[in-house]
DNA sequence: CGGATTTGACCCGCGC
DNA sequence: GCGCGGGTCAAATCCG
C-alpha cells in the first residue's frame, strides 16, 4: 500500500487494482449490503497518508486498501468501479464487495473509457484534487515522486492513445479487407449473372445473328454480349470498339488438353470452346482477352492447324454462348493494338516479382541480344485466363527484372493482384487508345495551362520500333538517367509515376490522348527523333531492356503530360499500389530506399529522388500492323 | 501422385 | 526458299 503520496494518488498493479490514498467518504458503509454501489467522495480533511473511507455520519475514518476492477464502465462523466474483496480478516479494512460509483467533477472526463482504465478514474485523482493542503504535508521527495508519477502517467496517456489508434487502425484494416472481399464476391456474382443473362439472350436471339451482328458492330449490345472482365489489360477500351474476332484464348492449348493430358484446366471455359465450335473467325465480343489470344492465334497461324479437334460439346455447358460472326473489317492496326503489352521494370533479385497472380511457366527461350533467358508464364488463377507474361532480366543491368504482361484477366483478382493488374491495364489502355480525337484539343489546352507544374522524375518513352505497342513502367531508379544508353528511336518524356486505375470510368481515360499527344507533339520539337524504322530484330526484349539515351522532350511537354496524369488520383493510386506490391516482393528492397513516400493527396506520387522512379516507357509500332 | 517445371521441337512471320 | 527469331507446345522430368 502506497502511503507516501501527497495528493490523491494510487498504486496500481497490472490487473488494475490500486489503492487510494485520500480519504473518501462513503455514502454507505461497506457492511451495508443493501447498496450495491458506493458513492465515494474525496475529502481532504485527513492529514494522514492513508486513504480513508468513511460512511456518512461516521466519525471514525477507516483505512481501506481495496482493489478496484478497472475495467469499469464509463457513462458520461460517471465512472463506476467494481471493488474486489480484499481481506476480511482485518477489522480495520473494509471489504467492499460491490462497485463504487465515482462522480468525476470535471477535467478528464472526456477521456475514453479505455483510457479511464489506466489513467482516469473519474476522481481526478492525480491532478485536480491535489490541493495546497495536500502539498503542504508532503516533502520534496514526494513531490518529485509525484511529478515523476505524473510524467509516467502522461506517458501512459500517450501509450493508451497509441494503443487506441492501433486498435482503430486494425479495425479499419478489417473493414477494408471485408470491403475487398465483398467487392470480389460481388464481381463474381455479377459475372455469373451476366453470363447467365447473356446465355439466355443469346438463345433468344439465336435466329437473329445477322441482325445482332450488325448491332454488335454498332456497339449496341456490347454490354450484353461481352462477358465482364474484371481486369482489362488495355484491350477492352470500348466494347463497341472491340468488335474483333475472338476465339478461345486457351483454346489453342486447353482444347488440346484432351489429347495432351497435361492441360486439363479448360473445364469451365465454355465460351472459348463454343467459339471454336463456330470457327475462330466467327467469334466476337466474347472477351477482349479472348480476342487478344485469338488474334495472336491468327497471327501465328497456329489455330487452324492445331485446333482441328475441338470438343464436340461446345454448347453443352450452361454457359455456352453461340459465337457471333465477327466483323470482317478488323484492320491490322487494330490487331496490333490488341497485342499491346505492358512491361514493368523493377529491381529485384527474385526470379519473378510478386504481382499477386498465380503463374505457370510454360516456356523459356534465349532471346537475341540478351544472355539472360526469357521465361514465359501463363496466368493460372482461373481456367482460361489468357494473361501471359514474360520475365527476363535486363541485359545491361542484371538486377533489373523486366516483366511484360499481355492479355486481360478473365477472372476476379485478389486485392494483391489488383494493383499490378490495374496498373498494367491502365498503362495498356493509355497506349492503345492513342488515336487522336477531339479530346486532344481539350486535353492540350488543359495541359498547357498546367505546364508550370514541377516536372516529375518519371519518364515516358515512346518508340516506333516495337512489334507490339508496349508501355513500360520503369520502376527502377538510376542515379544517372543516362547510365544506360537508350535507343535513338525512343522518345523520352518526363512522366509522373502513376497509372490510371480505371480508364473507362475516370478522367484517366484521357491518358491515351496524352500519349497520343506526346506522339503528336514530338514531331513539333526540333531535335526530337521519332524513328519510323521498324527493326524487327530489335525485339521487345531489347526494347524493354534498353530505355536509355533517348532524346529528351522539352520540359513543357513533359510537364504537360505530368500534369495531366497527375490530375487523376486513381492514376497515382494504382501505380502506388503497384509499386508497393513490387516493393513487397522479394528482391525489391532497393525500392524502399528510393521511394520514401507516396503522397496521393493531390494525385502525385512523391519520391525521394528526382531522377527516377516510375519511368513509363512506351514503345509503339506504327509501321507494322501485322506482327 | 498430381502439379509445376524443363526443354527440345515445332510453327509462324519476316527479311533477305 | 531459306534462315532467323519469337512464341508455344508437350513429353519428360522434378518436386512436394
UniProtKB/TrEMBL annotation:
GO MF annotation list: DNA-binding transcription factor activity; sequence-specific DNA binding
SUPFAM superfamilies per UniProt: WRKY DNA-binding domain
CC per GO annotation: nucleus
Location in the cell: Nucleus
Coiled coil: 148-196
Biased composition (Low complexity): 246-277
Bias type Basic and acidic residues, positions: 294-309
Compositionally skewed regions (Polar residues) per UniProt: 527-551
Keyword Transcription (UniProt): yes
Region (Disordered): 238-334, 527-555, 605-627
InterPro entries named in the record: WRKY_dom, WRKY_dom_sf, WRKY_plant
Keywords, sorted A to Z: Coiled coil, DNA-binding, Nucleus, Transcription, Transcription regulation
Main localization (coarse): nucleus
Residue ranges annotated for the WRKY domain, each copy included: 348-414
Name this polypeptide is given: WRKY domain-containing protein
Native organism: Clitoria ternatea
Amino acid at each position: 500500500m502506497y502511503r507516501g503520496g501527497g495528493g490523491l494518488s494510487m498504486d496500481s498493479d497490472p490487473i488494475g487494482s490500486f489503492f487510494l490514498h485520500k480519504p473518501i467518504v462513503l455514502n454507505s458503509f461497506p457492511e451495508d449490503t443493501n447498496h450495491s454501489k458506493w458513492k465515494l467522495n474525496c475529502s481532504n480533511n485527513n492529514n494522514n497518508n492513508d486513504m480513508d473511507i468513511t460512511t456518512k455520519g461516521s466519525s471514525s475514518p477507516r483505512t481501506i486498501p481495496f482493489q478496484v476492477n478497472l475495467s469499469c464502465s464509463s457513462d458520461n462523466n460517471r465512472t463506476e468501479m467494481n471493488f474486489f474483496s480484499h481481506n476480511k480478516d482485518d477489522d480495520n479494512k473494509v471489504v467492499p464487495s460491490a462497485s463504487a460509483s465515482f462522480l468525476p467533477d470535471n477535467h478528464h472526463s472526456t477521456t475514453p473509457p479505455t483510457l479511464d482504465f489506466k489513467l482516469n478514474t473519474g476522481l481526478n485523482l492525480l491532478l485536480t484534487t491535489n490541493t495546497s493542503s495536500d502539498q503542504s504535508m508532503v516533502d520534496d521527495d514526494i513531490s518529485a515522486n509525484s511529478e515523476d508519477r505524473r510524467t509516467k502517467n502522461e506517458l501512459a496517456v500517450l501509450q493508451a492513445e497509441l494503443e487506441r489508434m492501433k486498435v482503430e487502425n486494425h479495425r479499419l484494416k478489417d473493414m477494408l479487407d471485408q470491403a475487398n472481399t465483398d467487392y470480389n464476391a460481388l464481381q463474381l456474382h455479377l459475372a455469373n449473372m451476366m453470363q447467365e443473362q447473356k446465355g439466355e439472350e443469346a438463345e433468344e436471339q439465336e435466329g437473329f445473328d445477322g441482325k445482332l451482328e450488325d448491332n454488335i458492330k454498332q456497339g449496341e449490345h456490347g454490354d450484353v454480349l461481352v462477358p465482364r472482365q474484371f481486369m482489362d489489360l488495355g484491350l477492352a477500351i470500348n466494347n463497341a470498339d472491340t468488335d474483333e474476332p475472338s476465339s478461345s484464348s486457351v483454346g489453342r492449348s486447353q482444347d488440346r488438353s484432351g489429347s495432351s493430358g497435361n492441360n486439363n484446366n479448360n473445364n469451365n471455359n465454355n465460351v472459348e470452346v463454343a467459339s471454336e465450335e463456330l470457327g475462330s473467325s466467327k467469334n466476337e465480343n466474347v472477351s477482349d482477352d479472348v480476342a487478344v489470344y485469338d488474334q495472336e492465334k491468327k497471327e501465328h497461324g497456329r489455330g487452324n492447324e492445331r485446333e482441328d479437334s475441338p470438343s464436340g460439346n461446345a454448347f453443352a455447358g450452361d454457359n455456352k454462348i453461340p459465337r457471333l460472326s465477327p466483323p470482317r473489317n478488323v484492320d491490322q492496326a487494330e490487331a496490333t493494338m490488341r497485342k499491346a503489352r505492358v512491361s514493368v521494370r523493377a529491381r529485384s533479385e527474385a526470379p519473378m516479382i510478386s504481382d499477386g497472380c498465380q503463374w505457370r511457366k510454360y516456356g523459356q527461350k534465349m532471346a537475341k541480344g540478351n544472355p539472360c533467358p526469357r521465361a514465359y508464364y501463363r496466368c493460372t488463377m482461373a481456367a482460361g485466363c489468357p494473361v501471359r507474361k514474360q520475365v527476363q532480366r535486363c541485359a545491361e543491368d542484371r538486377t533489373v527484372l523486366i516483366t511484360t504482361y499481355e492479355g486481360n484477366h478473365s477472372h476476379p483478382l485478389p486485392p494483391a493482384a489488383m494493383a499490378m493488374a490495374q496498373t498494367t491495364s491502365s498503362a495498356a489502355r493509355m497506349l492503345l487508345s492513342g488515336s487522336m480525337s477531339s479530346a486532344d484539343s481539350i486535353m492540350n489546352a488543359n495541359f498547357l495551362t498546367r505546364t508550370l507544374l514541377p516536372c516529375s522524375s518519371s519518364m515516358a518513352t515512346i518508340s516506333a520500333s516495337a512489334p507490339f505497342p508496349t508501355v513500360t513502367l520503369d520502376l527502377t531508379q538510376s542515379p544517372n538517367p543516362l547510365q544506360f544508353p537508350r535507343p535513338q528511336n525512343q522518345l523520352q518524356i518526363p512522366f509522373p509515376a502513376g497509372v490510371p486505375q480505371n480508364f473507362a470510368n475516370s478522367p484517366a481515360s484521357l491518358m491515351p490522348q496524352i500519349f497520343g499527344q506526346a506522339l503528336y507533339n514530338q514531331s513539333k520539337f526540333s531535335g526530337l527523333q521519332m524513328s519510323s524504322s521498324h527493326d524487327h530484330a530489335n525485339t521487345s526484349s531489347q526494347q524493354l531492356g534498353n530505355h536509355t539515351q533517348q532524346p529528351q522532350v522539352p520540359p513543357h511537354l513533359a510537364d504537360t503530360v505530368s500534369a495531366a496524369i497527375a490530375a487523376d488520383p486513381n492514376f497515382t493510386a494504382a501505380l502506388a499500389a503497384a509499386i508497393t506490391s513490387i516493393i513487397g516482393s522479394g528482391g525489391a528492397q532497393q525500392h524502399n530506399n528510393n521511394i520514401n513516400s507516396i503522397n496521393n493527396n493531390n494525385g502525385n506520387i512523391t519520391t525521394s529522388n528526382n531522377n527516377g522512379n516510375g519511368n513509363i516507357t512506351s514503345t509503339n509500332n506504327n509501321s507494322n500492323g501485322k506482327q
